[in-house]
Design brief:
Layout (H helix, E strand, L loop, with lengths): L3 H40 L15 H23 L1 H10 L5 H19 L6 E4 L3 H25 L1 H4 L3 H6 L15 H4 L3 H11 L3 E3 H29 L1 H9 L16
Antiparallel strand pairs: 1-2
The structure holds S-adenosylmethionine.
The site of S-adenosylmethionine has 13 residues, from helix 5, helix 9 and helix 10.
Length: 262
Amino acid sequence: MHTQTELIKGSTSRTKKLAALLFSLFSYLSFLLTFVYLIGFLGNVAVPKSIDSGPGLAWPWALVVDVLLITVFALQHSIMARKSFKRRWCHVIPPVIERATYVLASSAVLALICWLWQPIDISVWSVQSPLFAGLLVTLYWFGWGLVLLASFMISHFELFGVKQPLDTLRQPKPVNNAFRTPALYKLVRHPLYLGFLIAFWVTPEMSVGHLVFALTSTLYILIGTQLEEKDLVELFGDKYRVYQKNVGMLLPSLRRKSGTGR
Ligand SMILES: C[S@@+](CC[C@H](N)C(=O)[O-])C[C@H]1O[C@@H](n2cnc3c(N)ncnc32)[C@H](O)[C@@H]1O
């Protein structure tokens, strides 16, 4: 039989687990809203303020503000993803909501980018052919589709911090951090980032402001990929090294594929 103290302890810990789950759901919802807004923001569609909405600051100041905004995103994303930061951060918050806090912070910085972004309305290219413009818009949506699909392949709800608190309420504890190479991950090592690159670059109307976004975020993705792979090699060792040899980073490799794991 359980003592009264045990029952109180049990219900307190269940309340904490439920609170953690609620927090992670709130973070996930914030992410969904910013993600959907970002699609409209970059595609200049169905949002009150898009990447090319003006008027803004004079272009030299607009450039400074925009580069600063992307730098804030890159710093938040990279610092919070490092193991050393996570170790210290988990002394402050319960480890089970660590990923959800990362998702919430990323969504907040993304929202800041959409809100404060300064347009630089000088045309870099403008596709006149309706057919070609339509093809580019289709490819733009394909890029976002790739992001979503890859996230589900790698474990969507773990990536966005919902699975971790959910697992504390379920028995037995599932194993996290498994090395996975499902479908798209057999073609390229970073299909999700490839999807972002397509969505950032492919547009029938490229303005200087949009180009600044595409260039700076591409630079960040390339640096972030190196950092992520360093962690993945540390985590998975030779399995990941073999994977690197056989599968291209962002474009399919022409080399023979073998030993790509599951
Ligand atoms: C935002 S996801 C991006 C995944 C991948 N870079 C991509 O572009 O598809 C980042 C998380 O996925 C994890 N990850 C990346 N590749 C993985 C793999 N092959 N197996 C398991 N986890 C992976 C990383 O450790 C990191 O926590």
